[in-house]
Design goal:
The chain is mainly β. It is built from 6 helices and 24 strands. The protein starts with about 25 loop residues before the first strand and ends in a 50-residue tail after the last helix.
């Protein structure tokens, strides 16, 4: 189960509930969040840490640290302005009011002397990436996006760790024996994404930074944070240098190559993003339900899914996606349902893929989100072998069908403003084996669609008689688009979890 509304389920209507039942099989640092109408930047998210009974490194205790941007105005109004003619000029992606650390400023984290902490750093942000470090406490990265990597020191000399929106990073720090003083945790939003790449400078007095402290001694003062000047792309540690602990060889040969040319565009006076000249527009039926209901003769035809930028891939294929970023800013790309190998990511302003490969690692880093440089390209690979994450929970389906079920995954820029502006494609994985699975949409899913309301069968238009007739499907960008206000009241039992990794 994935949980992206309009893709693998209908949205959960106000006053309704929905249970996500899954097995957390892969340890590491995750986060859960809404995937509907720009809700999570208003607070509908949280860390999700899956503990490993036998991690490949030693630590004594754990800390979770979230770094993100914050806006004083709620997302519905921000989205409405952005997705209107007023939001077109000069890349109208709204500028945050500032940065937060663990949902606050000037936070303190008590620590013990001579203790190794496994710090789960999460960036559940809306727009910019972040650079961070612990003053006078060297960091060793051991995990990225829930993939263990060979221990790697990252803040050597001027180099700082950078984390993009949607990414997670597990680092080890060891505290000092001396408890006479405290130390700053420094974080800054990426000035390049927010201003410089748009040809702007920060407004006078604008604060890009947020500070916390490792507190050894409650009686000691909290020191001023260190001052760093003029951080450039060369000052960030290149995460393509990480080597997975399992040293999985590069996937080859490639069975299916997808080239995505991405651009910022003006569509009917609205600031949108497109992929291969097509902007994502949500349809009347979630894409997974379309795959489950149109039949074997049609589920492999991308036309039936409508304007969701569908790409159909076969089971167990090695899939290569080349993303040409023809936009002048950075974009963090995230793929649902898979960790992918990152083979290449070129330097800023080096242009689109020339059709030939550079030298890349034979054991490339593997993660589920990577930052793509402006006017540059990146190459990722994965095998289309995800086990079942269909709408049927373990109590609703026969396990023997797990490897023959439908999978539908989004790939998108993880800047939430760009998600709502159509910077998404849909991977339809292994529909050719759907007919053999015998899977049915569970009743609780159908109930959610009825309550919303949203159609739950047929092609993108809801046509159950002729899947190739898309009359009534959504083809135009709305000119009066709002997100949804979030009122967050829920609990997360320790033995259970919630949606959307």
């Amino acid at each position: 189960m994935d949980g992206a509304s309009g893709d693998t389920q209908c949205p959960i209507a106000p006053g309704q509930s929905f249970t996500y039942d899954f097995t957390a099989e892969e340890p590491g640092t995750y986060w859960y969040h809404s995937h509907n109408m720009g809700q999570y930047p208003d607070g509908l998210f949280g860390p999700l840490i899956v503990h490993d009974p036998n991690p490949p490194f030693h630590f004594d205790e754990e800390i979770t640290l979230t770094l993100f941007d914050w806006y004083h105005e709620e997302m519905p109004n921000l989205i409405h302005t952005y997705q209107s003619p007023d939001g077109v000029a000069a890349d109208g992606t709204p500028t945050p009011a500032g940065a937060l650390m663990n949902a606050g400023k000037n936070i303190t984290i008590p620590v013990k002397p001579n203790t190794t902490y496994y710090v789960h750093v999460i960036c559940p942000g809306n727009f910019p990436g972040h650079a961070f470090y612990f003053d006078q406490h060297p960091m060793t990265t051991v995990e990225v996006d829930a993939v263990y990597v060979e221990p790697t020191k990252v803040n050597v000399g001027r180099q700082q760790a950078r984390i993009a929106t949607g990414q997670r990073q597990g680092v080890l720090i060891t505290t000092k024996n001396d408890t006479s003083q405290n130390y700053a945790i420094w974080d800054t939003m990426d000035v390049n994404m927010l201003f410089l790449n748009k040809g702007k400078l920060p407004p006078p007095g604008y604060n890009l930074n947020v500070t916390g402290w490792l507190v050894y001694n409650d009686s000691a003062p909290l020191p001023d944070p260190p001052i760093l000047h003029n951080l450039t792309n060369a000052d960030f540690f290149d995460d393509l240098k990480y080597v997975p602990v399992d040293r999985q060889p590069v996937l080859e040969p490639v069975d299916h190559q997808i080239i995505m040319d991405s651009n910022g565009v003006n569509t009917s006076g609205i600031a949108r993003f497109d992929i291969n000249n097509s902007t994502y527009i949500g349809q009347k039926v979630p894409s997974l339900y379309t795959a489950l209901s149109v039949g074997e003769n049609y589920s492999s035809n991308p036309l039936v899914y409508g304007h969701v930028n569908p790409y159909v891939i076969k089971h167990n294929d090695v899939v290569e996606i080349i993303i040409n970023n023809n936009n002048g800013n950075l974009h963090p790309w995230h793929l649902h349902g898979h960790h992918f190998q990152v083979l290449e990511r070129t330097a800023p302003h080096t242009g689109a893929w020339p059709g030939t490969y550079q030298n890349f690692s034979r054991t490339p880093v593997r993660r589920d989100t990577f930052m793509l440089q402006p006017n540059a390209y990146g190459i990722i690979r994965f095998r289309a072998d995800n086990p079942d994450k269909s709408p049927s929970s373990p109590r609703n389906y026969n396990k023997r069908n797990a490897d023959s079920s439908a999978r539908v995954w989004l790939i998108h820029c993880h800047i939430e403003f760009h998600v709502v502006s159509g910077f998404i494609a849909t991977i339809i994985e292994a529909p050719e084996v759907l007919g053999a699975s015998g899977l049915k949409i569970p009743q609780d899913h159908l109930d959610a669609c009825k309550a919303y309301p949203m159609l739950s069968a047929g092609n993108a238009a809801g046509n159950t008689q002729n899947p190739l007739d898309l009359t009534g499907s959504v083809t135009e960008v709305s000119t009066d688009f709002y997100g949804y206000v979030v009122t967050l009241l829920f609990s997360l039992p320790e033995s259970r979890s919630s949606p959307l990794l």
